[in-house]
TrEMBL record:
Name of the featured protein: 3-oxoacid CoA-transferase subunit A
Domain of life assignment: Bacteria
A molecular-function term among this protein's GO annotations: CoA-transferase activity
NCBIfam families: pcaI_scoA_fam
SMART domains: CoA_trans (SM00882)
Alphabetical UniProt keywords: Transferase
Pfam families per record: CoA_trans (PF01144)
Record organism: Nocardioides agri
Length: 256
């Protein structure tokens, strides 16, 4: 039951080239930065990352991207990373842009054993009709585009309405960051750092959690646990220095 691994290096050592990763965080809030840096040091490449965004140019997933370790992204927002835009528009990176709520539900469904679901989001757009550019060539031509998706009309309280079928996401590995965690893998997130972390943990076949504070089994109030240990296979306890190393994506202050 003790799932604690001695280091982030050991925790990610068996992640192979070509793996699919579900990665928690929103912007730079709640990202598993230590695990990401361990992957960077390991030299793992050809990765597909499922995450709300791709960090920034010098932090988070942006560090893997800068070293050309990511071949494909499934995400909903990518506007803070100039290198991301450059790689995408020059044909070096494949990107499947997904509405944010749909992405969250695809990850949740993958962790819940639901293979697909219908949603109204995207009906009547290229999300449903197909044609969203997933990959360009170096001349700016679209070489891979999203396929058309199945749609179906269902009766709702407001009357008949069209919905689009979305498929669940199951990743080879999930990488998350928690405020507290115990040796059994039960996790608690703090405030907005909760974001995509529970979903990334759910949909990973093997989920690795870096925790800012490791506690003993029984110390967490069961009513406060956000991710039960059944979803987590490995726990990495951060040092105080690692736990405190949190970047601010955009610092906004007002005059004194």
């Amino acid at each position: 039951m003790d799932k604690v691994v001695t280091s982030a290096t050991d925790a990610v050592a068996d992640i192979p080239d070509g793996a699919t990763l579900s990665v928690g965080g929103f912007g730079l809030c709640g990202i598993p930065s230590v695990l990401i840096d361990a992957l960077l040091a390991a030299g793992t490449s050809d990765l597909e990352a499922v995450s709300n965004n791709c960090g920034v140019d010098d932090w988070g997933l942006g560090r893997l991207l800068a070293e050309k370790r990511i071949r494909r992204m499934i995400s909903s927002y990518v506007g803070e990373n100039k290198e991301f835009a450059r790689q995408y528009l020059s044909g070096e990176l494949e990107v499947e842009l997904t509405p944010q709520g749909t992405l969250a539900e695809r990850m949740r469904a993958g962790g819940s054993g639901i293979p697909a679901f219908f949603t109204a989001t995207g009906v009547g757009t290229q999300v449903a009709d197909g044609g969203l550019p997933w990959r360009y060539d170096d001349a700016g031509n679209v070489v891979v585009a999203s396929p058309a998706k199945q749609t179906q009309v269902f009766e709702t309280a407001e009357g008949p309405r069209e919905f689009v079928l979305e498929h669940a996401i199951v990743a080879d590995f999930g990488l998350v960051r928690a405020w507290k965690g115990d040796r059994h893998g039960n996790l608690v997130y703090r405030d907005s750092a909760r974001n995509f972390n529970p979903l990334a943990a759910m949909c990973g076949r093997v989920t690795i959690a870096e925790v800012e504070e490791l506690v003993e089994p029984g110390e967490l109030d069961p009513n406060q646990v956000h991710t039960p240990g059944v979803f987590v296979q490995r726990v990495v306890a951060l040092t105080p220095e690692q736990a405190a190393d949190k970047r601010i994506e955009k610092r906004t202050v007002r005059p004194r």
